[in-house]
Amino acid sequence: MVMARLSTSGEMLVMVQTAAVADEEKEPLIKEIVSALTKEDQIKVVSIYLQFNDEVSDAARPNAPLELIHGQKQLRMRLLGLDFDIGPLSFYQANSRTCELLYGRALEWLRPENEIAMLDVCCGVGTIGLCASRRCKKVVGIELVPEAVESAKANAALNKVDNTEWVVGRAEEVLPKLLQELDPELEVCAVVDPPRAGLHTTVLRALRSCSQLSRMVYVSCNPDSLVEDIIKLTLPSESDEDPFVPLRAVAVDMFPHTLHCEMILLLERSSKVTDPRPKAKAKANSEAAATPEGDTGGSGGGS
Ligand SMILES: C[S@@+](CC[C@H](N)C(=O)[O-])C[C@H]1O[C@@H](n2cnc3c(N)ncnc32)[C@H](O)[C@@H]1O
Hints:
Layout: E1 2-6, E2 11-18, H1 23-38, E3 44-52, E4 66-71, E5 75-79, E6 82-86, H2 96-110, E7 117-121, H3 127-132, E8 138-143, H4 146-158, E9 164-168, H5 171-180, E10 188-192, H6 201-209, E11 213-220, H7 223-234, E12 244-252, E13 262-269, H8 276-290
Parallel strand pairs: 2-3, 7-8, 7-10, 8-9, 10-11
Antiparallel strand pairs: 1-2, 3-4, 5-6, 11-13, 12-13
Helix pairs in contact: 5-6, 6-7
The protein binds S-adenosylmethionine.
């Protein structure tokens, strides 16, 4: 398996994954890979990693042996005026250009302004949180992969951002405690951007029951898990007076010529949203009253 990542300046990081090889086969294998990947002038391969993976999986595995066999450790990406250094094991959006549109719209809807604190749940190398950090009081990012969290910290320093905090761990283990320990005076908003499986029930419950959390943007690459999670965040229940309400949604064509896309969905607390339905109902009633004998234009029969 070969994973290739192209930077905005045309440089490439490549990770080659094979089954483990005997010690005496390793050197010749490395020589062959490096020579094959660097002889092409048109592609500037600046970093090559080799990972041994004996499991039945073609994904980058955080705990499998990994070796830098050529060039620099990380690839630099430029995004919305900031620089991000990323390694081979960290998630990074596949399409840099569309990614700017995605983050731009997500943050426009989220409005992480002034004194508000922002949670970046499943933050990867900290891209969304860092893009928001100059607008809000504080950003707290949570991410499972240690390499990505190290990059998020380094990326904050690289961009001279000093109001962020990055926590490594599973969101379902870290987030409930983190929300409980928040300064109660602080208003909070959140971006959640989980993997295809969506958010863990514990995370959904913690987000829903945190009254300081007024607004949330859900970024998703899987409409099935998005729908399931949104139902859990919005369905009215007797014990919860103030569920979230979905307000806006848009699809972003992150993967052109495929059936896949990213979704952005804005949720606000129901107490902060004016229900448009009474207005619509009042309008329909006044229109019906203005029609002679309330005639709706039909043949006169009831329904
Ligand atoms: C779709 S990516 C989004 C990353 C980042 N927001 C971005 O736009 O680049 C999902 C991220 O969630 C992380 N992740 C997966 N399961 C997680 C969990 N249980 N808790 C926290 N992070 C998790 C993955 O490692 C990955 O970085």
